[in-house]
Design a protein that fits this description.
It is a single chain. The protein is α+β, with helices and mostly antiparallel strands. 28% of the residues lie in helices and 24% in strands. The protein has helices at 53-60, 91-105, 108-117; strands at residues 4-8, 14-18, 21-26, 45-49, 67-68, 78-82. Strands 1-2-3-4-6-5 form a six-stranded antiparallel β-sheet. A hairpin with a 2-residue loop joins β2 (14-18) and β3.
């Protein structure tokens, strides 16, 4: 995706940005995302912005989907995915989620230009 920069979060975690707006970041372990059996915090959570609440619901409501959310992200236009579950997505599915994340945070001009070049 064009105009992407990679910043470092406070723990050195990658934060992907477009126009200084984050659209994907690798989250540090937090108390709201944990293994229900062991209580251990997930150390491999990736956050993806989504275009709308309906897009978010479409990704997290299916119990077989690797995407999830937590109460901490209620009202936030993003979904979570554990890196350990990436293999459950096809390359095409992952590319679509990444493109949607970028488009949801890119400026209208950049988004329009990218969509015109990638119908």
């Amino acid at each position: 995706m064009p105009h992407v920069t990679v910043e470092q979060g406070p723990a050195g975690n990658p934060v992907y940005q477009v126009g200084r707006k984050s659209f994907i970041f690798f989250r540090t372990p937090r108390p709201d995302a944990f293994d229900p059996d062991t209580g251990e915090r997930y150390s491999d959570v990736i956050v993806f912005w989504v275009p709308s609440e309906s897009d978010k619901l479409a990704l997290v409501q299916d119990p077989d989907s690797p995407f999830f959310t937590t109460p901490h992200f209620q009202g936030h236009l993003s979904v979570l995915l554990r890196a350990s579950r990436l293999k459950e997505l096809t390359v095409r599915e992952l590319a679509e989620v990444i493109q949607d994340a970028w488009l949801s945070r890119a400026s209208p001009t950049r988004a329009r230009q990218w969509l015109a070049a990638h119908p």
